[in-house]
Design brief:
Largest sheet: 7 strands, mixed
Helix content: 25-40%
CATH superfamily of the largest domain: Type I PLP-dependent aspartate aminotransferase-like (Major domain)
Structural class: alpha/beta
CATH topology of the largest domain: Aspartate Aminotransferase, domain 2
Radius of gyration: 24 Å
Distance between the termini: 53 Å
Number of domains: 2
CATH class of the largest domain: Alpha Beta
Strand content: 15-25%
Number of strands: 19
Number of helices: 13
C-alpha cells in the first residue's frame, strides 16, 4: 500500500506531518489552468540569458513579453529594490509617497504628459485611460460622450472593459455581454473612423505598433489624421504604449518616433524592469475630471514599484542608452532579412521597430517558436501568424549574432522537416 502524501508543518517550533489525500493522476497543479505552459522552468537569469532548472542556458528574446527590458538581475535594479525593501514596502495612498512623485516628475519631463496615475498592470492603466476620457467629456458638460473608437487587431488587456476595447471574440467568448462603449474599426481606414464619430464619441484609443496583433506598425500619416480628427471634434487621442513604451522601439516612447502627440498614454511592462507597475499619463486638460475620489488603487504607487521604476529610468535616461538600442535594433533587422531570404518558404516578412520585431511565418508560428526553443532561444507568438522577437534593450551585438545563428539552425531543421513532409505527401 502506498503511504499517503504528507505536508511538513511547523507549529510552535515542533515539526508535525499532516497526511494529505492523494490528488490522483488528473490533478497535477492547483493553478487555475488559464495558460498552456511549456514544461520548462527557470532558476536564474543574468542579462539576456536564463538558466533552466535542469542547468540549460537560454537566450531570452521574449523578456517576459517585453517586460525585462534591462535583462535579468540588472545590478542597479537589484540594488534599488534591495535598498527600498529594507526601508518600507507599502504605506497606501492615504499618505505622500516621495518615490512616486519622483517617477511622475521624470516621466512628465520626458514626455508630453503633466500628470500620472500609477497602478499595477497594463490592463489597469488602460482602464484608467478609459475613465479619464469619459470623465473629461463629463467635466466639459457632455456626459453622453462615453464611446471610444478602437481598432481591429488591437490588444488592450484582460479586464472586461479592456477586452471590450480589444473587441476580439476569442477573448470575449463566455463572459457575457461586452462592456458597452467601444467600436472597432479597420486600422488605416480613415473613412470608417470618420463615419464612427458621433455625438456620443469621447476618444480614440490606438497602439502605435500592435504588438499582440502581430507587430503591425501603424502608419504615422494615419496617426496624424486621427490627431486632426480628435482636435476637430473635441475628442481625446489615447495611445496604448504598454508594449511599445519604455525604449522598446528605440525612443523612450514610441509616439516620439511618429511625430504625433497623444493626450493620454498608458505604460506598463518594462516600466518597472520586471517589477509590476503600470501608469496612465495625461495632460492636465485631459485629466481635468480625475478629481479626488474618482479613481484609486490599493497597491499602485507603492514604494517598491516606484523604486523599480526610478531605477529603470536611471538606466534608460543615461547618455547613449537609446543609441545602443537603435544600433542593435538595426543590426537585428538586417540579419533577420538575411534569414528571410534564406528561408522564403518559412518567413514571409520582417516587421517592427527597434527591438520589437515580428517574423510573419508561412508555417504555423508555434512551430517556429518551438524550433527556436529547441535551439535554446525564447520567443513568443502573436496574431497574424507572427513570431515576436523581444530581446532585452541591453543585448549585445554578439548576442544578436548568437540569436540569429540559432534562428538559422532552427529554420534549417524546420525547413528540412517540411521538405520531407512535402515529399511524403507527393509520394502518396
Amino acid at each position: 500500500m502506498v503511504p499517503p502524501k504528507k505536508r511538513r508543518h511547523i507549529l510552535f517550533g515542533r515539526v508535525n506531518f499532516i497526511a494529505l489525500p492523494d490528488p490522483g493522476p488528473a490533478m497535477t497543479s492547483h493553478l487555475m489552468p488559464t495558460y498552456s505552459r511549456v514544461d520548462l522552468a527557470f532558476a536564474q537569469g543574468e542579462g539576456a540569458w536564463l538558466t533552466a532548472t535542469n542547468g540549460e542556458r537560454y537566450l531570452d528574446f521574449c523578456c517576459g513579453v517585453a517586460v525585462t527590458a534591462l535583462g535579468h538581475r540588472h545590478p542597479h535594479l537589484v540594488a534599488a529594490l534591495t535598498e527600498q525593501a529594507n526601508k518600507v514596502w507599502h504605506v497606501s495612498n492615504l499618505y505622500d509617497i516621495p518615490e512616486a512623485d519622483r517617477v511622475a516628475d521624470r516621466l512628465c519631463a520626458a514626455s508630453f504628459a503633466e500628470v500620472v496615475f500609477f497602478q499595477n498592470s497594463g490592463a489597469e492603466a488602460v482602464e484608467c485611460s478609459i475613465k479619464t476620457a469619459r470623465k473629461y467629456q463629463s467635466a466639459n458638460g457632455h456626459p453622453e460622450r462615453y464611446r471610444i473608437i478602437t481598432f481591429e487587431g488591437a490588444f488592450h488587456g484582460r479586464t472586461l472593459a479592456a477586452l471590450a476595447a480589444t473587441g476580439n471574440k476569442k477573448y470575449l467568448d463566455g463572459f457575457g455581454p461586452p462592456v458597452d462603449g467601444f467600436e472597432q474599426k479597420p486600422c488605416g481606414d480613415l473613412d470608417a473612423v470618420k463615419r464612427a464619430i458621433g455625438p456620443e464619441t469621447a476618444a480614440i484609443l490606438i497602439e502605435p505598433i500592435m504588438g499582440e496583433g502581430g507587430v503591425r506598425v501603424v502608419e504615422p500619416a494615419f496617426l496624424k489624421a486621427l490627431r486632426e480628427l480628435c482636435d476637430r471634434h473635441g475628442l481625446l487621442l489615447m495611445f496604448d504604449e504598454v508594449q511599445t513604451g519604455m525604449g522598446r522601439t528605440g525612443e523612450l516612447f514610441c509616439y516620439q518616433r511618429t511625430g504625433v502627440t497623444p493626450d493620454v498614454m498608458t505604460l506598463a511592462k518594462a516600466l518597472g524592469g520586471g517589477f509590476p507597475v503600470g501608469a496612465c499619463l495625461a495632460t492636465r486638460e485631459a485629466a481635468k475630471g480625475m478629481t479626488p475620489g474618482t479613481h484609486g488603487s490599493t497597491f499602485g504607487f507603492n514604494p517598491l514599484a516606484m523604486s523599480a521604476a526610478n531605477a529603470t529610468l536611471d538606466v534608460m535616461l543615461a547618455p547613449g542608452f537609446f543609441d545602443h538600442v537603435k544600433k542593435v535594433g538595426l543590426l537585428l533587422k538586417q540579419r533577420l532579412a538575411e534569414i528571410k531570404d534564406r528561408y522564403p518558404s518559412l518567413i514571409a516578412e520582417v516587421r517592427g521597430e527597434g527591438l520589437l520585431i515580428g517574423l510573419r511565418a508561412l508555417v504555423p508560428a508555434g512551430e517556429l517558436v518551438d524550433a527556436l526553443r529547441g535551439e535554446q532561444v525564447l520567443a513568443v507568438a502573436a496574431g497574424d501568424n507572427v513570431v515576436r522577437l523581444l530581446p532585452p534593450l541591453i543585448v549585445s551585438e554578439a548576442e544578436i549574432g548568437e540569436g540569429v545563428a540559432r534562428l538559422d539552425r532552427a529554420c534549417a531543421r524546420l525547413d528540412a522537416a517540411h521538405s520531407r513532409q512535402r515529399k511524403q505527401e507527393a509520394a502518396r
